[in-house]
Amino acid sequence: MKKFITFMLMALCLSISMLAQVGYYYYHGTKMLLKEDATKIVSISPQSENVSLSPSNGFTLVNTIPDTRSLINVYELASFTTIKRAITANASAAVCILPCYKSENGNELIPNGYINVKLKSSTDYPTLQTLAQQKGCEIIEQNQFMPLWYNLKVKESSKQNSVEIANDIYETGKFASAFPSFSCDCREFSFDPDVYEQWGLYNSQYKDLDISLSQAWSYATGRGIVIAIVDEGIDLTHQDLAANIYYKSYDTETGTSPSNLYGTHGTHCAGIAAAVRNNGIQITGVAPDAQLMSVSNRLIIGSNTEKNLANGINWAWINGADIISCSWKCSKNELIEDAIDNAVTKGREGKGCVFVKSAGNTSNSISYPGDYSQEVLAVANMTVNGTLHPTSAHGLNLFVTAPGTNILSTVPGNKVQKMSGTSMACPHVAGLVALILERNPSLTAKKVREIIAKNTKKVGNIPYSTNKTYGTWNEYYGYGLIDAYKAVLNTPRN
Questions:
Q1: Predicted pLDDT of residue 194
Q2: Would 402 disulfide with which of 55, 187, 194, 428, CB 3.0-4.6 Å?
Q3: How far apart are CA 248 and CA 197, in angstroms?
Q4: Residues pairing with 400 in the sheet
């Protein structure tokens, strides 16, 4: 039975004065500004308490963040209810009330009561134990793939929130990193019903505005290369994918194999990258003989999302992935970055996995982690006539452009469906990487990036006037539209 709590000021779990001062968290030692969202709050309580805030007091429940350890609810505030009033008038020992935030680029950040901490050395664990106890935190777990990382949960009885405690932990100078976990919507896709079937592979409307794939298949089809799709899971039995499914898969939510299926998005991305060719069924992928590794995640707001995605990336490279394709976004954090760094340096026996990421559908800056480093191949969304889609992100770290609008691909239940977004552009590039690596498996990830960048089509009506590492570039198309034929033809052989 839901309990409507009579909150008491004396049991306040947040200090108002301290709350007003919290306007940042640490990211690589730099303070990242946070702006309070005056329209929302988040309440955190034990699952056993089943706490709800009363609508009569100005609270409207808009979201519940999935978590097995706490009940995390997001509420919209009525016009008469301010964040300060919500906290001062509605607090008890059983619930913690926090503000919601927005990042500097306007993305919603919802604190979920967890903190990620990285030790400088394994010998620092006793220090973390002591500090966690002092701050009213519980050490939940050690990261199985990156053992210097620990996940902490802030107890409802703590006198500080997760943002404050994370800052305090980092400011001791005794730890490599400490930052609050934020929940955000990870999904990056949109739907569009009007599609010309696989125009990105064969564009009959606009000559040469495709990726010149048929010519490339004379040289490579991705045979022997493994593409990890870190997404909502792949329909492992789909009639146009099953023959290319890798024998290992992983579910990041449970930490077990096989992967689970949480939506259509991952199966759609998988089909673009490596649907089976010449089977008389539906579509073909860019690398039709490559293998697809399914690494599943719910891709919804959750307190474990960052950790789970990082674990999925680590599991992929450890278990044989050559390419990691990610069509999602999250808030900036060092946990994800360590996982990416592991993949691009340790994967493929030290040659590095190639990490491909959707640029994002933000109409402006590239969504994280697409903007993390030059090792991440951020991909923009091109339409059938060679123009950039209006929602496609752009910026300094944009790498290349690929077809992303009105793309037909596989979805669960042996079906195909049309979708649009940089999510669809990303697996086109992942498939191209598979073709290149089949031609020469000894290539480093850096060399693969070079081959792709130097063999593109300079599409669009914006000049490629900036000289970057691999040639001319602009912030809307990167190095240009990928050209599979030129890239494969110019791949050096062993």
A1: 36
A2: 428
A3: 31
A4: 379
**Of residues 367, 277, 363, the one with CA closest to residue 328:** 367
Considering only CA atoms, which of 484, 416, 436 is closest in space to residue 198?
416
Q: Which candidate in 231, 240, 289, 371 is catalytic?
A: 231
Given the residues 389, 423, 428, 483, the one annotated as active site: 423
Name the nearest CA neighbour of 448 among 438, 457, 458.
438
Q: Are residues 311 and 423 in the same domain?
A: yes
How does pLDDT run across 280-300, given as a tens digit for each residue? 889 999 999 999 999 999 998
Whether 123 and 218 map to the same domain: the answer is no
The answer to whether the CB of 265 falls within 8 A of the CB of 189 is yes
Q: 18-51: per-residue pLDDT in tens?
A: 333 348 999 999 999 888 888 888 888 887 777 7
**53: containing domain:** 3-183
Residue finishing a domain among 155, 183, 211 = 183
Count, residues in the chain? 494
Convert the pLDDT of each residue in 180-213 to its tens digit: 998 876 766 554 343 358 999 989 889 889 999 9
d(C-alpha 379, C-alpha 392), whole Å: 9
Q: Check if the beta carbon of residue 115 is closer than 8 Å to that of residue 178.
A: yes
278-294 core/surface letters (b: 16 or more CB in 10 A; e: else):
eeebbbbbbbbbbbbbb
Q: Is 465 a catalytic residue?
A: no
The 10s digit of each residue's pLDDT in 425-436 is 999 999 999 999
Tell me the C-alpha distance between 464 and 470, whole Å. Answer: 12
Q: What is each CA distance from 112 to 20, 162, 240, 388, 489, in whole angstroms?
A: 18, 8, 39, 36, 49
CA distance 159 to 137: 11
Q: How far apart are CA 366 and CA 397, in angstroms?
A: 8
Active site annotation includes 265:
yes
Active site residue 231: yes
Q: How many separate domains does the chain show? A: 2
